[in-house]
Amino acid sequence: MLHEDSLVSASWDKTIRVWDLVSKTTVRVLQGHTGFIHVVKTLQDGTIISGGDDKRLRMWKENGVVEVPSVSGGINSIGIAGDLIVTGGMEEEIRVRDSSSGVCVKVITGHRGWINCLITCE
C-alpha cells in the first residue's frame, strides 16, 4: 500500500488518501470513519492508523481494516513507540495499545483536559 514516495493525508471529509508524490495523484482512498479524522500515522509495515471524532481507532492493513471501538471521546493524537500505539484525545486519558491488534494494554491518567498532541521518544 505504501512505498517511499507515498504521502498519507486525513481530512474532515472522513477519508484518508494515499498519494504518489512523483505523479501527484491519489492512489487509494480509505473510507470508513463516520466523523472527522484528526490524526493519521503509519507503521513501518505499511499499516495506516487513524482516529477522529467517531471515537474509533482504525488500523488499515494490506489485507483489510481493524476497527477498535476504543474510547468515550474522540481521538486527537497518535504516537508510535516500538510495538506500541499510544492514543490521546477528548477523554483526558492516554491509552497504550498493542500495534498488531489495537488492544489497550495500559491507561495513563493525569491531564484535566483534551490531549491534543503526543510525541514518543525512541
Task: Give structural notes.
This protein is mostly beta strands and 122 residues long. It has one domain (6-109): Lipocalin (Beta Barrel), CATH 2.40.128.630. 0% of the residues lie in helices and 54% in strands. The protein contains no helices and eleven strands. Strands 4-5-6-7 form a four-stranded antiparallel sheet, with no helix packed on it. Strands 8-9-10-11 form a four-stranded antiparallel sheet, with no helix packed on it. Strand 8 (75-81) and strand 9 (84-89) form a beta hairpin. The radius of gyration is 14 Å and the shape is globular. The mean pLDDT is 91.
The total tally of domains equals: 1
**What is the overall number of helices?**
0
Instruction: Give average pLDDT, whole number.
Output: 91
Order of strands across the widest beta sheet? 4-5-6-7
Approximately what portion of the residues adopt beta-strand conformation?
over 45%
What would the principal axes of the Cα set say about the shape?
globular
What is the ordering of alpha helices and beta strands?
EEEEEEEEEEE
Structural class: mainly beta
State the helicity in percent bands. Answer: under 10%
From the N-terminal CA to the C-terminal CA, the straight-line distance is: 25 Å
How is the CATH topology named? Lipocalin
SSE inventory with pairings:
Layout: E1 6-10, E2 15-20, E3 25-31, E4 37-42, E5 48-52, E6 56-61, E7 64-69, E8 75-81, E9 84-89, E10 93-98, E11 104-109
Antiparallel strand pairs: 1-2, 2-3, 4-5, 5-6, 6-7, 8-9, 9-10, 10-11
Brief account:
This protein has strands at residues 6-10, 15-20, 25-31, 37-42, 48-52, 56-61, 64-69, 75-81, 84-89, 93-98, 104-109.
